Amino acid sequence: xxxxxxxxxxxxxxxxxxxxxxxxxxxxxxxxxxxxxAEFATVLVRALKLEPQSGKIxxxxxxxxxxxxIATAAWSGIIQGYDDATFGPDDLITREQMAxxxxxxxxxxxxxDEIAFEDAASISxxxxxxxxxxxxxxxxxxxxxNTFKPQANATRAEAVTVIVRALK
Length: 168
Fold this sequence. Notes:
Blueprint: H1 9-18, H2 37-47, H3 67-75, H4 95-106, H5 128-136, H6 156-167
Helix pairs in contact: 1-6, 2-3, 2-4, 2-6, 4-5, 4-6
């Protein structure tokens, strides 16, 4: 009940219809709310229609509602933890973390372009290749001021949009 006219309305409807993401009990979707690492991994696993796998169970995901989705994403090579024991499932996902997960899921090649965003220097070294290629492929975009805001939290609308673009 809160996506009419939103810039991501069509992408939200696609992934909701596909069963990859749901709204809330009150009928809202909250497109501009932040999304957690566990939520993003879950939506990505569902959108890719990955079969459940016995992947890595991090110490902080062993009793988490998304444990099986996170394990499947880890088994598939889509996600890694902060370290061997910590995934941070309830941490808000950053835009550069989202780019890396999409990059790994989509299994694209190597970027030949330099990152053209004004704030390219603030992109973490471990995310540079993913951000460059996802931008080059048009899967993830920057903002009107030509910034990427790599450490900014991704919204539900942004997450849905990059997943839909990656699936095309």
